Amino acid sequence: MTSHHMFVKVRNLLNQPKRQFWNDWKNVFTSDDGKPLTYEQVREGLFDELAKGHEYIPLGDCDNFDYVNGGCKGHEE
Q: Does residue 45 contact residue 30 with C-beta atoms inside 8 Å?
């Protein structure tokens, strides 16, 4: 059986109105010490991902992720 991590398109997040974005995602993005990031910190981080050429980001840790074509390539269980 193969499992796949969930992911999101960076540009879709950046195109959401602030209120909608923050209502949907405010508890998803945290710092390395587990503290929630501010809206501005999250947007800055998303722009950094685009600058790296990352059109997609995983929701969680994934060691088999395609940042350009979108998605986890799968994990055998």
A: no
Question: For residue 3, is it left (φ>0), alpha (ψ between -120 and 50) or beta?
Answer: beta
Residues 6+ apart with CB under 8 A from 21: 13, 39
Amino acid at site 22: W
In the 8-state DSSP scheme, what is residue 37? P
- Kindly report the pTM of this predicted structure: 0.84
d(CA 68, CA 52): 10
pLDDT exceeds 90 at position 27? no
Q: Which amino acid is at 17?
A: P
